Amino acid sequence: MDIFTLSSLVIITISCILLWKKKSSSGFNLPPGPPSLPIIGNLHQIIGKSLSHTIMNMSQKYGPIILLHFGSQPFVVISSSKLATQAFQTHDNVLCNRPYSRNLKRLAFNYNDIVFSPYDDHYKHMRKTLVVDFLNSRMTKSFKKVLDSELKRLIDSLPFDKEVHFDKMISNFMVDYVCKIVAGKSYGDVTLGGKKLIDMLHEMAILFSGSFSEMFPSVGWVLEDLSGWTRRVDNHMTNFDALIGKMIDEHIDHTNADEKDLIDVCKSSLTREEMKAIMTNVFNGSVDTSYLTLVWVMSMLVKNPRVMHKLQAEIRSHSGKKPRLDETDTAKMMYLKNVIKETLRLHGPSPFLITRHCVEHIQIGGYDILPGTNVLICSRGIAKDPTVWTENVNEFYPERFENRVVDQFDMTPFGGGRRSCPGFNLATSTLEVVVANLFNNIDWKPPNGMRNEDLDVEEDEEGSLLVAKKTPLYLVPVKHNSQA
Ligand code: HEM
To answer: For 221-240, what is the mean pLDDT?
Structure first.
C-alpha cells in the first residue's frame, strides 16, 4: 500500500469517527448523508460530476433529505414533493434568505438585485418594481407585439431545407426579444472585451454556480484570488457593467404607453445601480432559461415523432389563416401546454432552485435544520419523485398531465414560496407562443438523414447553474404544405 492510499485511509477513518461523534453528541436529529472529510466536506463526491444525478443517487440510499458539506458549509438537500411542501409552506419565512458570499455580492451589483439580495425592505421594493411596474398586464400586452415582430423576423430568415444551428438561432432570438423589452432596442451584436451579451450571460451562469467564498466563507477569497477566479469575475463585471450602462445611456424615453420598456418604468423609482441590477436579473432570468427550454422542447419533439405529429395537428387545427399565432390561439392548445410542462419536468433548465439560507432552527421531515444551514431544493428530484410520478417517470409523455391535477409542489421548475420566479407567467406564455409558431407552417427534421430517434439528448450540467444539451442541436426546417 503506497503512502498516498495509506494517508487517505487514515483521513477517511478519522473523519468517519469525528462525524459519528459529532452527530451523536449534538443532540440533534440531523438528516442522514454520506460521511464527509475534514476541510473539503463532501466536495470529493460531487466535483466533476452531474450534481443533480449525484444527489438523486445519494437520495436513493439516504432518502429525500440529506446533509452534505460543501467545504465548511452545511447544505441540506431536499428532493421530494412532500418535503418541498413543508419547506415552502410551513417554513417559507425562515427559508426566504439566500446565503451571503463575496462572489455573489460582486456579481449581484452589491446585492442591489432581486435574485441574491437578502430578504429585506430593499428586496421587497425591487421585487415589487419588477412585478407591479414591469410584469403588469399593460406592459405584457406590449411585449406581445415585440414578440410577434421578432417571430416574423425569425421565420422570414429561416433557410428552408438547409441545416440550422438551432441553439444559436434561438438564443439570438431570445437576446433580441429581451433586449427590446428591457432597453427598447437590440444589443445582441454589440461586442465588449471580445464578448457579446449572450456570451456574458453564459459566463454569468458559470460564475453564479459557486465559488470558494461560498464553501469557505473565511478564507475562500484567498483561494479565489490565487486561482484567478477574482480576476475572471472582475473582467466579466467590467464588460457587463459597461454594456448595461451603455443601454441606460443610449436609452430613448418612450412617451407612448404601448412602447415602454424596463428602463422607462424603473428610471424614476430606482438608482442607476439598482437599475443595472434589475436589468441583469431580467436578462439572466429570461434569456438562458427560455432558450435552453426551447432547445429541449425541439429536441424532445424531434426525437419523439408521435408527440411531434400530435402537437402539429393541434397547432394547425387552431391556426386558421393567421400568419402568426399569439396567446389567444395558444390558450386553446392544451396538448402544447402539456408538451411544455413535460419538457420542464424532464429537462427544466434549473435542476436546483437558487440556494436558501436557514435563519432559525426548524424541522423538515422530522429532521433538525439548524440556523446557518444552506438549503438546496432539487427540482429535478421532485420532478421524478416516485410517490408523485408513478408511471414511466423517465419517458417523454405529455399525456401524463391529461385529467390530472398537478399539485403546486409536484414539480417546481419555477421554485416556490416568496422567492419563487416572478417571471413564471411571461416565461410560459412566451414559450408556448414561440413553439406554436415554430410548428404552424414548418416541419423540422434531423440533418443528414439521421433517424429521429437517434437524436442525442444527453445533458451537460457541469460548472453551470443551468443544464444545457451536451451537443448542439442542428435541425432542418421544411415548409409545411397546408394544402397537401
Ligand atoms: C423558462 C424560464 C424560466 C425559468 C425556468 C425560471 C426559473 C427560476 C427559478 C428556478 C428561480 C428560483 C426560485 C426559487 O428560489 O424558489 C427563479 C427566480 C427568479 N426568476 Fe426566473 N425563470 C424563468 C424565467 C424568468 C423570467 C422571464 C424572469 C423575468 C422577467 C425571471 C426572473 C426571476 C427573478 C427576478 C428571480 C428571483 C426571485 C427572488 O429571489 O425573489 N425568470 N427563476
So the answer is: 94
pLDDT at 457 over 70: yes
| Dihedral Cα 431, 434, 435, 438, nearest 10 deg | -160
Distance 188 CA to ligand 1 centre (A): 22
**Confidence band, pLDDT 50/70/90 cuts, at residue 482:** low
Dihedral angle sign, alpha carbons of residues 346, 348, 349, 350: negative
| pLDDT of amino acid 361 | 98
Give the residue, out of 144, 374, 421, 425, with the most ligand 1 atoms within 8 A of its beta carbon, to mutate for a pocket test.
Answer: 421
pLDDT in tens, 312-330: 999 999 988 788 999 999 9
Give me the domains of the chain, ranges plus CATH numbers.
25-479 (1.10.630.10)
426 lines ligand 1 (CB under 6 A): yes
